[in-house]
Here is the input.
Amino acid sequence: MALPPGPRAPAVLNTARLVRKPIETLVAWHRRYGDAFTVRWLVFGTGVYVADPDEIRGMFTGDQSTLLAGEANSPLSPVLGQHSVLVLDGPEHLRQRKLLLPPFQGSAVAAFREIIRDVAAAEIARWREGGEFPIRDRMRSLTFEVICRAVFGVTEPERVERLRAALLAVLDMGAIFFAPSFMRVDLGRRSPWGRFRRRLAAADALIYNEIERRRHAPDLEQRTDVLSLLLRARDEEGEPMTDVELRDELFTMLAAGHETTATGLAFAFDLIPRHPEVLARLRDAPEDDSYLDAVVTETLRVRPVLDAAERTLAVPRTVCGYDLPAGIRVYPAIACVHRREDIYPEAERFRPERFLDGKTTAYTWLPFGGGIRRCIGAALAQAEMAEVIRAVVARVELEPLRPEPDPVVIRGITLVPKHGTPVRIKRLAGTPHELVAA
Ligand code: HEM
Here is the structure.
């Protein structure tokens, strides 16, 4: 079977190019080779990128038993666990997903907005005029705290801190999940895998402790955090989630939800100060949710946090006229679709207005993937981005420290601003009104 055309360079060169300039590289290949192109990668092997929204719709809505997503995430199972929604496929995936979805739907997420506003206000209160820092670091700590409070339901500062230290110690060893299997052997506390196992055991002990405490909390029935909702949830057979399932999903939400949202916010704070007309409009109408939401939507369009979703074909499939064999990976190419000129004229420009007429469709705007694997935290992430942008814009004059937008590069599997978006706090207003009036 002939695969679609694509760059002929060896895997090592393709990978080096993608890591340094992911968006430019994928967009250039899309222009050159068309809506389906084949790329050879290090580690991940050969894959076919698909940038045609109709084909992507077919993949997201078709029979999912032939399009596997969990299998591709299996290197993450040592940390996320066997029951993680990210590593499962088929009926087991659906069972976990159905249990997880309710706490992340509209009305539940509305309740989280207050937590987000509190955490954002406390974060800004620690900033000082003249202070300089990569804003992604600050956003990482903010989004971690939101997950701790909204998902774990933990608010006491010392417990948040203990969870933060233990969980980040595990996640910061992320590269090891992709190491060859001979390195994944526990040779004692000094070996990388041994260190990882010990950190994981320490983090797990804290998570199981939170689950146990919550199970016996006198106000369990009234609580609205995700852990409490999951403890009360029952599947179709009336069964509750086991402690191991709860642990795996809590870890998954933390791993999938905190850095991604922090990166989205860092991108937003790189773009907004460089577009005075956008900043002015946000300040002119701080309660105009439709414009604020358009800013979030446009940020995730020009700066998606993941360049592509990923599926593995369980059976042969025809994609864009090419007969692809079973076993090959296909990538719904988020970054390429978002830069299509036929859908987004002047696609490189940051222009939130384009979303004011509500023209997005699930298959032309897909920073959260789609179908039965669509990101569970999408509504929470968007609410979080909107509330944090609203809080910062109202009180802070940010000045990017780099003359040009921070280049987008790949770290791990996500797109990030290379330097973490370094900014200076030029001015800090006591009340939202002071800055708007100035
Ligand atoms: C801006 C922030 C975020 C971005 C860009 C993002 C993006 C994505 C993408 C592209 C996928 C894969 C979808 C697919 O394969 O079709 C995904 C899956 C997932 N995300 Fe997010 N995400 C974000 C925030 C969050 C948050 C806040 C949470 C939870 C608290 C979360 C939890 C998950 C989970 C559990 C999955 C797996 C869903 C499944 O396999 O059924 N994400 N996310």
Notes: The mean pLDDT is 92. The chain is about 50% helix and 10% strand. The first helix runs from residue 11 to 20.
